[in-house]
Amino acid sequence: MGTHVIKMPDIGEGIAEVELSQWHVKVGDLVVEDQVLADVMTDKAMVDIPSPVHGKVIALGGQPGEVMAVGSVLISIEVEGAGNLKESAAPAPVKEAPVAPKVEAVVESKPAPAAPRPAAACQGPMVAREADERPLASPAVRKHALDLGIQLRLVRGSGPAGRVLHEDLEAYLAQGQSNASAPVAAAYAQRNDEEQIQVIGMRRKIAQRMQDATQRAAHFSYVEEIDVTAIEELRAHLNEKHGASRGKLTLLPFLVRALVVALRDFPQMNARYDDEAQVITRLGAVHVGVATQSDVGLMVPVVRHAEARSLWDSATEISRLANAARNGKASRDELSGSTITLTSLGALGGIVSTPVLNLPEVAIVGVNKIVERPMVVKGQVVIRRMMNLSSSFDHRVVDGMDAALFIQAIRGLIEQPATLFVE
User: Fold this and answer.
1) Is 395 a catalytic residue?
2) Which residues of 12-26 are buried (b: 16+ CB within 10 A; e: fewer)?
3) Residue closest to 367 by CA, chosen among 310, 293, 301, 291
4) Residue of 54, 219, 242, 395 marked active site
5) What pTM does this model have?
6) pLDDT tens, residue by residue, 70-93
């Protein structure tokens, strides 16, 4: 028998150290070649570290949350025969394929210690989840569950990876809630338990970036109300006519288009500020970061060259990137390089928000929920679909007047959607 010692690999781009986020194996486990051993966190993305050999784990080189230098010992594996007694680096992390089916294949091959139970093992409409376990569901499904008064953690999900769908909520209601009495009664019981959660991995990176952004940038926010009735009618028409062949459009591709057009007159918003060098770099390319919630925290995949994309091209790329981020398979390149960020909580967007800048950018546009309200139009009270844009800017670079004019330009484009496509 021999010992194969694997060192932390060089992930590239000058990274000297990474954070060990999660082990997928423990001492005594048998592993095979290409099996994922651990997840490590760079400053932007989570990266899988695969095994280069078959063997038995005999030692782990660190604990989750520990920052490890490139070249330090990651893991030791006992192998058959003499083995490779020399220390070696783990194989280079597999680059995520840009094509969605390949991403799904990677997800399926990764061990999932917290995978949901098969549907056949779940009896009745409820699922026993831990109190702190956050079920997978889209913002719209969470809003629907909230409106129906359903505790989402009790609903069995039939979607990929146990994701709760709208149909699951309907099935939960249809099957009755006779088993819900115990959880309801438990809600009134006294509790004295405590839980400590270590801030590591993606959550640590998010905390560091948010703290850094609020300490370094001079934030100010501006809120503008927008009538989205016309653009929602256009979106519905396009989906009815082309949805089956080109895919469904959400509001986000229209907002990306509005950003692209408005930035032609306000290039100071599409910029990065190096506050150490005291240099502002305005960019011609519009790389739109789309803030996306994943199970490990907030991620911002980037729609590159949005200025050169059609509505459907933008919609396809937003969907692809969002899926990659939620599955933890977005690459470092897909999570870096944005020039302006768009953030939306969908149906849960609330009335007003104060988004935090994604440094070194100088502007972020926040989308709130759409509501129907009576409005006075040409002297008549009519029902219109209204939405707020809650946006934040770096006051060191952007003046208040320019910020207001920029958002009002977006408002004009959205309220008169034909102007989005007039050159």
Assistant:
1) yes
2) eeeeeebbbbbbbbe
3) 291
4) 395
5) 0.65
6) 889 999 998 886 555 444 555 555
